[in-house]
């Protein structure tokens, strides 16, 4: 049975099977530890057994005023466990933290414009493209900033799409 629980430091030694495809960003150990220390409530693991990590989501909260939001830094599931609803469970966990713990206006994430499978999945979860970010991925590929409004954003202002693409240096949360 799959469970979703808080990510632990030891999980960093057990997540290699999760980060195997080219579209999954793999970060340095210090990056994961910084997130785990700073935003532990935003870091969850999906497990088949207590020590068998088969997916994870990591994120943070950022912004000010009506731009206060949860951000999905990474969500991924091991290839053998995909298409079983685990990503949806992990995203739901992060969305609940954004709403119930931090009272955010929206959740956002970035995805490569070429990753049609992920874009379709996020759209099924209620996300929509807010803006296109030019050369977001290492200056080689554009990214979509996708958003989902939380209940605090009653008028859904946070998800009204921008009419023009932006550059990475134009992304601000002030």
From TrEMBL:
GO molecular function: protein-N-terminal amino-acid acetyltransferase activity
Superkingdom, taxonomy of origin: Eukaryota
A Pfam family per the record: Acetyltransf_1
Keywords from the UniProt entry: Acyltransferase, Transferase
GO terms for cellular component: NatB complex
CDD domains (UniProt xref): NAT_SF
InterPro entries xrefs: Acyl_CoA_acyltransferase, GNAT_dom, NatB_acetyltransferase_subunit
Transferase as UniProt keyword: yes
Domain called N-acetyltransferase: residue spans: 2-151
PANTHER family per UniProt: N-ALPHA-ACETYLTRANSFERASE 20 (PTHR45910:SF1)
Family stated for the protein in its record: Belongs to the acetyltransferase family. ARD1 subfamily.
Protein name: N-acetyltransferase domain-containing protein
Annotated organism of origin: Ostreococcus mediterraneus
